C-alpha cells in the first residue's frame, strides 16, 4: 500500500509541481492525469495536493472572489465642478518640456493641456 501512495504522490508532483505541470489549478491537473490514467479518489487527491501546494498558496491569485459591478460616477451639475487630471510623461523634449498635464472637465469633456519640464511641483504650475 505504501508503494501505491508513493506512486500517487510522484504522479501528482509530476503533473502539478513540475515545470511541465506549471502549478496549474485543480481542473487542469485532473484533466492531464485523467487523460493518461485513473484511480479511485483521483479528484479528491488532486484537490488536496493543489490545496497543500506551498507555491500555489503563496503566488496564485484567488480568482473565485468577484470584484463586483462597476458603479457609475455621479453626473456633475456644472462645468469645471468635477475634473480629472493625468500626466503624460517620457516624451521627447520640445522647448525644454517633456511632460504634459492633462486636465479634463467631466461634464463638458473640455480639456486643458499644460506643458511641463522635470522637476515640477504644484507651486511651479
Please tell me about this protein's structure.
It contains 4 helices and 3 strands, in the order H-H-H-H-E-E-E. It is α+β, with helices and mostly antiparallel strands. It folds into 2 domains: 2-59; 76-125, 2-Layer Sandwich (Nucleotidyltransferase, domain 5). A 3-stranded antiparallel sheet has the order 1-2-3, with no helix packed on it. Strand 2 and strand 3 form a beta hairpin. Helix 2 (26-34) crosses helix 3. The protein is elongated, with a radius of gyration of 28 Å. The mean pLDDT is 84.
Work out the helicity level.
25-40%
**Strand arrangement, largest sheet?**
1-2-3
Determine the N-to-C terminus distance.
Answer: 76 Å
Provide the succession of SSEs: HHHHEEE
Total count of helical runs of at least 4 residues: 4
- Strand percentage, roughly? 15-25%
Largest sheet: 3 strands, antiparallel
Radius of gyration: 28 Å
Number of domains: 2
**pLDDT < 50 runs, ≥5 residues:** none
Brief descriptors of the model:
125 residues, alpha+beta, Nucleotidyltransferase, domain 5, 2 domains, three-stranded antiparallel beta sheet, 4 helices, 3 strands
Amino acid at each position: 500500500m505504501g508503494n501505491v501512495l508513493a506512486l500517487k504522490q510522484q504522479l501528482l508532483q509530476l503533473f502539478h509541481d513540475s515545470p511541465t505541470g506549471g502549478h496549474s489549478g485543480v481542473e487542469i491537473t485532473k484533466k492531464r492525469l485523467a487523460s493518461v490514467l485513473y484511480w479511485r479518489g483521483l479528484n479528491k487527491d488532486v484537490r488536496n495536493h493543489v490545496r497543500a501546494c506551498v507555491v500555489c498558496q503563496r503566488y496564485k491569485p484567488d480568482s473565485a472572489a468577484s470584484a463586483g459591478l462597476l458603479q457609475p460616477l455621479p453626473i456633475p451639475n456644472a462645468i469645471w465642478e468635477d475634473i480629472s487630471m493625468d500626466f503624460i510623461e517620457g516624451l521627447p523634449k520640445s522647448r525644454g518640456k517633456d511632460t504634459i498635464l492633462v486636465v479634463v472637465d467631466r461634464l463638458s469633456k473640455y480639456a486643458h493641456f499644460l506643458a511641463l519640464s522635470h522637476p515640477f511641483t504644484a507651486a511651479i504650475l
